[in-house]
Amino acid sequence: MIARFVILTHDHPHLHWDLMLEDETSLLTWRLSEEPNRTGSIPAEALPPHRKHYLDYEGPVSGNRGSVTRWDAGTYEVTHQSEYELSIVLNGEKLHGPATLSQLDSNGKWKLQLSTEDSSDS
What we know:
Elements: E1 2-10, E2 16-22, E3 27-32, E4 40-50, E5 59-60, E6 67-81, E7 85-92, E8 96-103, E9 109-114
Antiparallel strand pairs: 1-2, 1-6, 2-3, 3-4, 4-9, 5-6, 6-7, 7-8, 8-9
């Protein structure tokens, strides 16, 4: 399945990046503690699914939870999926190539491993 993804810069409660992957009914979401502008491993935290409107939204978040701006967007394709791992290929404006989300524990700790073919210099 080829679907859309977005990475939003979010300034609440502290600066982080939200990786959102479209599925059938919602956006699977992970909070990234570092800007995903390089290859390597980035700590991630699983969040509850978000509404699909965030694929195209920038601006204030309800409940005084800061604001979001688009850092990257595009499509992705799942290449492998299991209970504890999701491998995808990103085709975004900044990120292109394989990436893997791996669950580290049952408390929502994950890591994003980027192996991008080319990435933004920003």
